[in-house]
Design a protein that fits this description.
The structure is a single chain. The chain is α/β, with parallel strands linked by helices and 314 residues long. Helix content is 28%, strand content 20%. The chain has helices at 25-35, 58-70, 86-101, 111-117, 133-142, 155-164, 191-195, 244-249, 264-274, and strands spanning 13-16, 42-45, 74-78, 105-108, 122-124, 144-147, 173-186, 214-217, 223-228, 231-239, 254-257, 294-295. Helix 1 links the parallel strand 1 (13-16) and strand 2. Helix 3 (86-101) packs across helix 4.
């Protein structure tokens, strides 16, 4: 795939982010079998949340990756975001070794994964916290061929970062999340287990009960956050469909969509249609994940949970 940055007239690619939730193996495989027919260009695979989630083994992800690649998708294997033990570190090295042997690109979500790549091409994931052009240039020198800005980066800072990129960093692709719940934080504690009064190491894999995460409300009943094991997500669902023209003008190459349990095919179809048009996407609220409202506040440097309609965005 051409790794050069796109021009504003080039149709951006669509990517499917790594699955954040703990679905059954059958549901996971069925989801990606469907994805083979969806108009997405790039599919990220692998466990990025919790090393205790074991229904999909590394061999399963690699086998699935080969099938997706045969269906015409670019496949990226994503590393665990929080390396919490020596076993996690060994498994991360094993995943990278196997992925590179199969000629899959790797998304590094932790700097130990960046180091393990040893100069091979990789995707600099959103949890590496790339805020400055110097950081971007440094990662490019280490082999990064694509990067994702942090989820709280607004349009002004992203536009500035795109303009300040050095010559080497200009060869990197820019990928921005445009749909789905936002990953706000990670912790060594498992909040889903704690909710059920269980210990992390004896959690009974309660994450399986929540295909779109466990909603958390304030005392007065307002949606606040979503709990997903050791990950804290937004309660709201990011929707930058209306901002696709702005993203195109900034030469953003790839639009990232976060998987959800229901309605993913329709969400992808809406963004696929919108990326070829001058107007932004219009995604119906029935396609939101459960217990979610839309949000786009970070885009204009406002609280991330806010939703601003087109006429409210100056």
């Amino acid at each position: 795939m051409n790794m050069s940055a796109s021009s504003p007239s080039t149709r951006p690619l669509l990517s499917l982010a790594p699955l954040a939730y703990y679905w059954s193996k059958q549901d996971t495989l069925s989801f990606y079998v469907d994805a083979m027919q969806w108009p997405v260009d790039i599919v990220y695979l692998g466990e990025v949340i919790c090393s205790r989630r074991h229904l999909m083994k590394l061999d399963d992800w690699l086998s699935l990756g080969k099938e997706l690649r045969a269906a015409g998708k670019q496949v990226v294997l994503s590393s665990l975001t929080l390396i919490d033990s020596e076993a996690d570190r060994r498994n991360m090295h094993r995943m990278i070794e196997r992925a590179c042997a199969e000629d899959f690109l790797v998304e590094a979500n932790d700097f130990s994964a960046v180091r393990a790549m040893q100069g091979k091409a990789f995707v600099a994931g959103p949890h590496l916290n790339i805020y400055h052009a110097d950081t971007l240039a440094w990662l490019a020198s280490l082999g990064a061929s694509r990067f994702l800005p942090p989820i709280e980066m607004g349009r002004d800072d992203l536009a500035s970062l795109q303009l300040q990129r050095t010559e080497r960093a200009l060869q990197m692709q820019t990928e921005v999340q445009v749909w789905g719940r936002l990953a706000l934080a990670f912790s060594s504690r498992c909040f889903t287990a704690r909710h059920h009064r269980l210990r992390k190491d004896s959690c009974e894999f309660r994450c399986e009960q929540y295909p779109d995460g466990l909603p958390l409300a304030t005392r007065d009943g307002k949606d606040f956050l979503t709990i997903n094991g050791i990950q804290t997500q937004s309660a709201s669902c990011l929707d930058l469909g209306a901002q696709l023209p702005e993203l195109s003008a900034m030469q953003v190459d790839i639009l990232r969509l976060q998987p959800q349990a229901q309605g993913m095919a329709e969400v992808i179809a809406a963004f696929d249609s919108a990326r070829t048009m001058s107007a932004g996407a219009s995604v119906g609220e029935t396609l939101l994940p459960s217990h979610a409202q839309r949000s786009n506040g970070y885009w204009t440097n406002k609280p991330g949970m806010q939703w601003l309609a087109g006429e409210q965005i100056s």
